[in-house]
Amino acid sequence: MKTFADLIITGANELLTLAGHSSEPKTGKQMKNLDIIEKGAVAVSKDIIIACGTWEEVTDEVSISSNTLEIDATNKVVMPGFIDCHTHLVFAGSREEEFEQRLMGASYLDILRSGGGILNTVRATRAASKDELINKSLGHLDTMLGFGTTTIEAKSGYGLTIEDELKQLQVIKELNCQHPIDLIPTFLVHTTPPEFNTTGEYIDFVINKMLVNIQGMAENCDIFCEHDVFDLAQSEGVLTAAQKLGFKSHIHADQLSDMGGAQLAARLNATSASHLDYISSTGIDAMAKSGTIAVLIPGASFFLDSDTYPPATDMISRGVAVALATDFNPGSCPTESMQIILTLACIKLKMSPAEVINAATINAAHAINRAGTIGSLEVGKQADILVLDVPNYQSIPYHFGVNTVGTVIKKGKIKVTVMKNNDKENV
After folding, report:
1. Is residue 391 within 8 Å of residue 75, measured between CB atoms?
2. Which three-class secondary structure state does DSSP give residue 94?
3. DSSP for 231-296?
4. What DSSP line would sit under 35-52, residue for residue?
5. pLDDT classification of 51: cutoffs 50, 70, 90
6. CB atoms within 10 A of CB 204
7. Would you call 379 helix, strand, or coil by DSSP?
């Protein structure tokens, strides 16, 4: 017996299914394949995709009734929702004055050493109530959803005490209940707070006190491995202790210098390593062998006006699974738009349009251990679907600085619709 479709999308100029990689991420030449179906259709029952293919194939599988909602995707692209696998969503305050300082010549580390940077956000976040953090974060989530992001990873790291880190993680948990976007929580060891005399003292506190108190509130543990922040031994100590408690490992690695963070991530079989602007050839080989996902963040390199970007094409050619993310945060990348990240990845990382789309969907899903349920349009997966007002996939990174979203469907329900008439948009 055929299943009745609650929703059906028809006539897509290009239906980007990205099928066949739920068990392992795309690497190498696979990243150029989007598994496109021309004039494609997708049928949904409740929150699950029940058919995907040509109109004839889909209607052979499902029944359509007067209650079925139909979306005409003629001359449009249909694809999975964007997955932003590295964000710092929950924070208070803003740091536009540091933006101006950098324009005058101050570096990111100069600002951090002077007590600014992350510590400015720590002070503001500690002072904010849960309700204030929730309200601010809801606004950012609305913007992300409007730009087509349907799942994010959200890090703590702006509290630095047990109480304040738990406050951030509790906010993430409550946001997960209040907003359509799914949030995956990560505990981030971000920097040493001023009340500790040494970094070593703080690392001991994290390992012996913080992790056990955070346990159960976050899936992942991340650490900022960098000069003047946490060294390799300290990073390994935290992540090893976290793994013993059941956390999955992520790491901020080789962003500002070659610290060997990529090799550490590979040695620990970390799920992902992020940034990697200064990754070495040895680090690339190690990550390719371990299967650790490289989460590349061209938006941060761009915003910090760096001359160095991660060697994405080299990573891809040598078998590293590459994902993309915004790194949304108040200091080094204050954008909620995955669309602009795709454009930057094409221009600055020399990735192709097909590669950036795979990196922002199925590979990003692997970077947060969700590829079994999201990241591609396949029968049995969650119906997180975008209808974009572009004629082909190349136009997604090409038509930059605007929002190409027409419709956002989250768990089978329309959450965003943009009607475009006479150059006017109504959301």
Report:
1. yes
2. coil
3. -HHHHHHHHHHHHHTTPEEEEEESSSS--SHHHHHHHTT-SEEEE-TT--HHHHHHHHHHT-EEEE
4. -EEEEEEEEEETTEEEEE
5. very high
6. 14
7. coil
Per-residue pLDDT tens over the stretch 220-261: 999 999 998 999 999 999 999 999 999 999 999 999 999 999
Is residue 368 within 8 Å of 361, Cβ to Cβ? no
Name all contacts of 248-251 with Cβ < 8 Å and 24+ positions apart. Answer: 248/219, 248/220, 248/221, 248/369, 249/220, 249/221, 249/222, 250/186, 250/220, 250/221, 250/222, 250/274, 251/222, 251/223, 251/225
Q: What is the C-alpha separation between 359 and 141, in angstroms, rounded?
A: 21
pLDDT digits (tens, 9 = 90+) for 314-362: 999 999 999 999 999 999 999 999 999 999 999 999 999 999 999 999 9
> 385, exposed or middle or buried, with CB in 10 Å at 0-12, 13-18, 19+?
buried
Residue range 287-315: mean pLDDT, rounded: 97
Distance, in Å, from the CA atom of 20 to the CA atom of 330, rounded to the nearest integer, reads 37
DSSP string, 131-178: HHHHHHHHHHHHHHHHTTEEEEEEE--S--SHHHHHHHHHHHHHHHHH
Token pair of 236 as six digits: 């390994």
Above 50 in pLDDT, residue 422?
Answer: no
Residue 288's nearest CA partner among 320, 259, 263, 330 is 320
Task: Compute the distance between CA of residue 152 and CA of residue 352 in angstroms, rounded to an integer.
Answer: 23
Euclidean distance between CA atoms 268 and 232, whole angstroms: 12
| Whole-number Å distance between alpha carbons of 61 and 56 | 9
pTM given for the model: 0.96
Give the model confidence (pLDDT) of 150-184 as tens digits. 999 999 999 999 999 999 999 999 999 999 999 99
Closest by CA to 339, choosing from 155, 73, 35, 77, is: 77
Residue 28 carries which DSSP code?
G
Instruction: Find residue 215's DSSP bridge partners.
Output: 218
